[in-house]
Amino acid sequence: MAEYIERNEVLIRIKPDEYYHSNEVKEILEDTPAADVAPAVHGMWEYIGTDKKGHVYRCSHCAGRIGLDYETAYCPNCGAKMDGGCGDGDGEIGGSAWRDLTRDR
Ligand SMILES: [Zn+2]
User: Fold this and answer.
1) Dist. CA 47 → ligand 1 center (Å)
2) Ligand 1 geometric centre to CA of 62 (Å)
């Protein structure tokens, strides 16, 4: 599994006006603790039709459904960032990407 480090943590360990041998740089990087990060998940809202309350969309990542009077840039079910990720959406709603699944493609 990939590990990530915070830039500021490395900069704290490097002293200004000091020269480092490549082995010392490697040691600094190895001694810097891994940051607590999770990979970003991306998705988009997929328009799947209407019900008596209005338009219904689902998350392309987890298939969680919402009415989109509730425009959100993140899926409330799985936390996916609704920025499209793959760039084949129809547009944006309130800063989030979406596509219409009711149309023929
Ligand atoms: Zn989701």
Assistant:
1) 14
2) 4
DSSP characters over 40-91? --B--EEEEEEETTEEEEEETTT--EEETTS--SB-TTT--B-S-SSS--SE
* Cα separation, 12 vs 42, whole angstroms: 32
Centroid of ligand 1 to alpha carbon of 87 (angstroms): 17
Q: What angle do CA 65, 67, 71 make, to 5 degrees?
A: 105
Say what the pTM is: 0.61
The model's pLDDT over 72-89, given as tens digits with 9 standing for 90+, comes to 788 989 999 888 765 455
Both structure tokens of 63: 């298939």
CA 18 to chain centre: 38
- 59: CA distance to ligand 1 center in Å? 5
For residue 85, report the distance from its CA to the centre of ligand 1, in Å. 13
CA of 95 to the centre of ligand 1 (A): 16
Phi, psi of 29 (to 5 degrees): -65, -40
